[in-house]
Structures are given as C-alpha cells and as structure tokens.
C-alpha cells in the first residue's frame, strides 16, 4: 500500500495569493511552502491592512478572502 505525500508549495512562485481566515496568522512564505529556497519568514498584518498585504522581501501580494 502506498501513501501519497503532499509536496510543499513552491515558494515565491506567484505574485498574488488568496488566503482565508483559517490561514491566519499570515506569514510569507506560507507554512505550506518549502523554506530552503526562500527568504526568512515574516508575519504580515493582513487584517489591519484592509484585507491585503505585501511581503517586504519578495513583494508577494496576499488577499484575504472569505
């Protein structure tokens, strides 16, 4: 019996990401992303920024959707 393992999401592969309240607190890179090829993790204040936030390292744009 084989078990499927989920591969980490490619870090910095997109310029915009949609996140949900369940994903908070928001960090870039996201917890599902591989860290070996990315910048240090930084937490972003998406709730106080009108539901949108940009990463100061890579410029990724995050949008909070419900």
Question: What does this entry look like structurally?
Answer:
With 66 residues, the chain is mainly beta. The chain has one domain (16-64). Helices cover 0% and strands 26% of the residues. The chain contains no helices and five strands. The strands form two sheets. Strands 1-5-4 form a three-stranded mixed beta sheet, with no helix packed on it. Strands 2-3 form a two-stranded antiparallel sheet. Strand 4 (52-54) and strand 5 (61-64) form a beta hairpin. The protein is globular.
Notable traits:
26% strand; two-stranded antiparallel sheet; mainly beta; 3-stranded mixed sheet; 0% helix; 5 strands
Outline:
By secondary structure, the protein is mostly beta strands. Helices cover 0% and strands 26% of the residues. It has one domain.
Helix and strand layout, with pairings?
Blueprint: E1 16-19, E2 26-28, E3 42-44, E4 52-54, E5 61-64
Parallel strand pairs: 1-5
Antiparallel strand pairs: 2-3, 4-5
What is the string of SSEs from the N terminus onward? EEEEE
**Count of alpha/pi helices:** 0
Q: Termini separation (Å)?
A: 38 Å
Describe the global form: globular
Mean pLDDT: 83
Strand content: 25-35%
């Amino acid at each position: 019996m084989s078990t499927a393992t989920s591969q980490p999401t490619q870090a910095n592969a997109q310029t915009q990401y949609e996140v949900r309240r369940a994903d908070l607190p928001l960090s870039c890179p996201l917890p599902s992303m591989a860290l070996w090829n990315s910048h240090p993790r930084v937490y972003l204040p998406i709730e106080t920024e009108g539901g949108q936030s940009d990463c100061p390292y890579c410029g990724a744009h995050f949008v909070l959707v419900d």
